[in-house]
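Submission sheet (multi-component)
Chains listed below:
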Amino acid sequence: KQEVTQIPAALSVPEGENLVLNCSFTDSAIYNLQWFRQDPGKGLTSLLLIQSSQREQTSGRLNASLDKSSGRSTLYIAASQPGDSATYLCAGQQYSSASKIIFGSGTRLSIRP
Amino acid sequence: GAVVSQHPSWVICKSGTSVKIECRSLDFQATTMFWYRQFPKQSLMLMATSNEGSKATYEQGVEKDKFLINHASLTLSTLTVTSAHPEDSSFYICSAPPEGGTDAYGYTFGSGTRLTVV
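Outcome: structure written.
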């Protein structure tokens, strides 16, 4: 059974720092991987999608990478801002053709002004 | 891009009543819909998978008689929480894979429904 672990569970850093969030899968056979942001009491905002043929995606200050051989993904946030404070979730799609997505436990990020 | 409209956004109901949550795919056909539940400060846990025209598949530990899922058309999937109890209070969210199963886009999520049972 696929399990997804995110480290750290919580992180508090001062504004301006670069930071890395980690995600690992017990089964390294990952087809697609998505990173989401969730604000308190809200739904999900998709940040980055790493498709089956890709290893990395970038959007603005965000960069996500996926190492399929180890079943690990990282989300890099550059020059963090207070507005980045949220819970970040990684989610893996194990197979192609509309298979279910398994979510990680999440990292609660707090950026101090 | 693809949009899944989820209603209601929030609902408060009395213990013992039933609540229906709807998810509609607005500009694409969703042959499959995934239903998740999220308790406070926890991650999203998959409850069940609905497929248009067939019975839903439930994850281990999810009561199929309590959480009724209907996927009657290619654009509508519903989750009904029957005889709700306070422990059913949670955030429920649906998700649909891209039409055709292509991986050009990620899955689309509804905005979620916060259910409070009093």
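Remark: The mean pLDDT of chain A is 91.
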